[in-house]
Design brief:
elongated, five-stranded mixed sheet, 16 strands, alpha/beta, 2 domains, Aminopeptidase, Glucose Oxidase, domain 1
């Protein structure tokens, strides 16, 4: 009798588990399909970019954005809305100009790199040392660039996964410091861009206590190519550059968060979001109003269900991604709950369609993740078997501390045409592709939130990659 009872109990348990799994699939598919018809992400993006505008750390607009985020979360019915302030020195752009003076006059229309040093008042004028690549500049003998304005014309390669950004971006990140070591007085770089536009791209460069650097700016692609042709023809080049800016070492920024509270395990948390700040030259639509909108809209769809999933979903609008600091601040504020953070993910590559999913190591064979992959397939999203890594700048601290991350990889083929420029505006957002992002996030998040999946345990037992 006991064996019969045990067999019956196991059968009932399996039936209930199967029934619960089937209900999860049905709910996730319904969320996916509803998201494809929903306009909330577009409305959020439009509201933020139109009514707040550029959101540089330390600017009045960034403080308005903080208040906007609080009001938005409350209006959408999220709970536990929190504003976490942290120290963050700010930088403010001032007057900028740049001219080719010889062999003829031409306006270079530069834009200063984020957090660059200023030139002397009135600017600096010097002969040019032009290099086609960053490595060519590095190879120049020490002292050989003394008194020169260095120009680096290295192009960026277009790629769906944005891989060209890291390669070309070193000119922006490290160029001013390395050129300074060789005696240069200023640096101009070809925009870290996949476009052919004259609109230059900004972006953060090295700065801070103990960093010896020089004034640095970006110029558009046609301008960089023109200088390269002139140099190839043997024409001596001379440039006048004026970059003015100010620093406030005692400023602050904020991470703003809210939650869809879990129904059974509310202390187990999934952390998602995008960054609220932007550069000052545009309205930060693709970078990263859409990331904020995608994750907020996905969580809102789940929050509107008759019953919340088991686990809590926390949406964070990080307050200083562009110039750094929000990841470290978030980790410091939440270090005590790290073991309870089940998973983290960030949307920060625009709004074009998601084409692949990367899971934490060992998770692909879990039933909930198999179901998630099946639900994502109609969205033309495939499972990339490589384990997720580098889930986002703002969750970098969590990831380094052992929190599992996911990558819902967006098509970045055109993202680097616009990001960090005055062209990063609402009209670059494709509403249909934006909705596809929300559909992917909402359905995937539901599976994780309503399951007992332990990504850490799965990762510990996953086969190690061969070396």
């Amino acid at each position: 009798m006991f064996r019969k009872f045990l067999t019956a109990a196991v059968a009932v348990s399996a039936l209930l588990a199967g029934s619960a799994h089937a209900q999860d699939v049905k709910t996730a598919e319904a969320l996916r399909d509803k998201a494809l018809r929903d306009y909330l992400a577009w409305d959020i993006t439009e509201d933020l970019t139109t009514n707040i505008g550029p959101r540089l750390v330390g600017s009045p607009n960034m403080e308005k954005a903080k208040d906007w985020a609080v009001a938005k979360f409350k209006a959408l019915g999220f709970t536990n809305v929190r504003v976490e302030e942290f120290a963050k020195p700010s930088w403010t752009r001032g007057e900028e100009s740049g001219w080719l003076m010889a062999p003829y006059a031409m306006n270079l229309n530069p834009v200063g790199l984020g957090r660059t040093q200023s030139t002397p008042a009135g600017g600096v004028e010097a002969d040019v040392a032009l290099f086609k690549t960053y490595n060519e500049m590095i190879a120049a003998p020490d002292g050989s660039l003394k008194g020169k304005i260095v120009v680096i014309t290295q192009p960026m390669v277009r790629a769906q996964d944005g891989a060209g950004y890291g390669v070309a971006g070193i000119s922006r990140r490290s160029g001013p410091v390395e050129a300074a070591k060789k005696g240069a007085v200023a640096l101009l770089i070809r925009s870290i861009s996949t476009s052919d536009s004259s609109v230059p791209h900004t972006g953060v460069t090295a700065n801070g206590e103990g960093v010896v650097t020089i004034p640095a700016a970006a110029i558009g692609v046609p301008e960089a190519e023109q200088l390269e042709r002139l140099a190839a023809a043997g024409k001596p080049l001379r440039i006048r550059l004026n970059l003015q800016s100010t620093f406030d070492p005692k400023d602050v920024a904020w991470n703003i968060s809210s939650e869809i509270k879990g129904s059974e395990k509310p202390d187990e948390v999934i952390v998602i979001g995008g960054h609220l700040d932007s550069w000052d030259v545009g309205t930060g639509a693709l970078d990263d109003a859409t990331g904020v909108a995608i994750t907020t809209a996905a969580a809102k769809l789940i929050g509107d269900l008759p019953k919340h999933p088991k686990r809590t979903i926390r949406v964070v609008m990080w307050g200083s991604e562009e110039s750094g600091g929000s990841s470290e601040a978030y980790l410091a504020a939440h270090k005590d709950e790290l073991p309870k953070i089940v998973l983290a993910g960030e949307s920060d590559t625009g709004a074009d369609r998601i084409y692949s999913l990367q899971l934490p190591a060992g998770a692909a064979e879990h039933p909930a993740m198999k179901a998630a992959v099946q639900t994502l397939t109609p969205l033309k999203i495939y499972l990339d078997r490589a384990p997720a890594a580098h889930g986002g700048a703002d969750i970098g601290g969590l990831e380094a501390s052992g929190v599992p991350v996911i990558n819902l990889n967006q098509d970045a083929s055109r993202y680097f045409d616009y990001h960090h420029t005055m062209d990063d505006t609402l009209n670059k957002v494709d509403p249909a592709q934006l909705a596809q992002n929300v559909a992917a996030w909402a359905s995937f998040l539901y599976y994780v939130a309503d399951s007992d999946i332990d990504f850490r345990a799965l990762g510990a037992t996953a086969p190690k990659a061969a070396h």
